[in-house]
Amino acid sequence: MRTGAEFVGESVVLLVSSGIVIWEYNRSQRSARDKSEAKRAQAQAERDALTAKLLALDTRLQALEKVVAKNSDSILNFGQKYKSPSKETIVPIVTESELKEFQKRQNIVEEEKKEKPKPVGENGGFLEGDLE
Fold first, then answer.
1. What local confidence, expressed as pLDDT, does residue 104 receive?
2. Among positive and negative, which fits the CA dihedral 41, 46, 52, 55?
3. pTM here?
4. SS3 (DSSP) at 73
């Protein structure tokens, strides 16, 4: 009888410790995955910000070229006309497919900001209606 009780006791200890080891392993894997996703999201956000700046600079450059072309008849140019660069020599800053992908990501981010429930309280809990 005594060996049976010891066996049951040892089995319970083994099961509990095995459960804790498995739980800790899963928790650490989830933590590593969350960190990786956060890094990826941050890199994507930085890339999107740089793309937006690049597009803004491209727009400004095009506006400046229009102004220079319009003012090429100025007396300060001494009769020289502005020659815009040929289409073949201009390298596009962002291709059409990249621009569409960027705009799609921006729309997704904006929609996620609208849909995401906001945490309430010190513990970051959500109100009951937020999670439905």
1. 84
2. negative
3. 0.49
4. coil
